[in-house]
């Protein structure tokens, strides 16, 4: 389409922020190049969501079997760490090639190597420069390094997901998504886990009484939580890794640093070309356009208010496809973005939070739902769980949060009611599949 440039659109990075939009754009006849210096598909398939949920599936299956002891099942299966990791590898190792094939079949050129912006329309990879009418930066994020001596003795989430030998004792630094999800997998597998919390709050963005439920369940798996910890250094003495902190020393044979994932803004030529960014990521307008008109950004590398999650990266990538192909010229309009913490039990939430309700108490009404009495959950002996449904003054559902073993599916089911502001009459005018968790969740609205 462009005669002036080699490509219509060049993407830097090949994760969900790229391929979900690049493939349909190429199918429309746009000439696309995708530059990648790691595994095709980026974080989510290879070392994020997909990899994590595979390991988690074994722990949740074991949990379900435990709950059903004496109700038709006898004997608790043991988790074999090595087999679990190998099974995960078998499933996910197919993904880079599969995603790469989807791109090349759509006519996309895959360019392997580390790319760096040269000017408003070009990226250099090795000695070669590629030019494009538009550039999309979708370089994702990386694990934060701790600025303390001995940091090199710690491991990150990617290491955890590929760890072949189960640690006997693991210290986790941080108490966000990755810290708690991985603490859950390790503790369910029999590792003694200590979580060092920076403050006295875990999973800050989630409803704290529900977070307490999760922490208590983790404590039942013998996970120890230590609050207000400042790691000061890490030392190796014989077989012990010792995290020295303001609260004393913590010994383990493996240390997971799960202290966040800053955006990949360094070393990609942003300063040289003058693209604005800050410590949260690349700054864009409501069309995902940077201050340089030909350069856009999508995914985790963005400074954005919505969660840095796979579905938001996909949404942004697909929005850019519509923008570039003239389907829309409107601003990006995010729907309600759900998020879940994949511990046992899960916490999931979407829309207006309970905290927002508490600061605007005359605006919303909260309905508490005790899920322990929900008959469908009794099929799995799930005897704990609560959800909070938040309604506005017109009786329209505007938010929900749930802690339960099936919270992610429950919240997923009710998304349309929130996004499309369904009235109670419209909600009633819906027939769900029965018996399913979806029908149970819908019936509570
Ligand atoms: C352990 C873990 C678990 C997660 N679990 C979930 C979950 O359950 N649900 C969820 O919604 N989200 C989850 N996430 C977040 C999700 O993975 C990300 O939001 C998503 O992958 C972001 O996609 P992206 O395309 O923006 O970035 P990435 O997928 O990170 O892609 C960026 C790509 O750019 C490449 N790159 C970077 N710099 C260059 C360069 N200079 N030249 C060439 N290539 C470059 C990188 O190699 C990478 O492949 C998880 C993340 C992690 C780490
Ligand atoms: N289920 C999911 O959707 C899911 C799962 C994993 C990751 N993710 C994505 O990946 C991102 C990164 O996850 P994460 O768990 O690394 O980040 P996070 O922001 O959720 O948690 C970071 C944790 O590190 C702590 N911390 C920060 N600096 C510290 C320091 N110097 N010392 C000790 N502790 C410190 C914070 O207090 C917090 O508890 C998430 O924000 C999310 O976007 C999503």
Automatic annotation (TrEMBL):
Binds 1 FAD per subunit. This is Glutathione reductase. FAD binds at residues 115, 300. Keywords: FAD, Flavoprotein, NAD, Nucleotide-binding. PANTHER family: GLUTATHIONE REDUCTASE (NADPH), MERCURIC REDUCTASE. Its cofactor is FAD. Pfam families: Pyr_redox_2 (PF07992), Pyr_redox_dim (PF02852). Residues 337-438 form the Pyridine nucleotide-disulphide oxidoreductase dimerisation domain. The gene is gshR. Belongs to the class-I pyridine nucleotide-disulfide oxidoreductase family. GO terms for molecular function: nucleotide binding; oxidoreductase activity. InterPro entries: FAD/NAD-bd_sf, FAD/NAD-binding_dom, FAD/NAD-linked_Rdtase_dimer_sf, Pyr_nuc-diS_OxRdtase, Pyr_nucl-diS_OxRdtase_dimer. Disulfide bonds join 44-49. NAD(+) binds at residues 174-181, 260. It comes from the Bacteria. Residues 7-314 form the FAD/NAD(P)-binding domain.
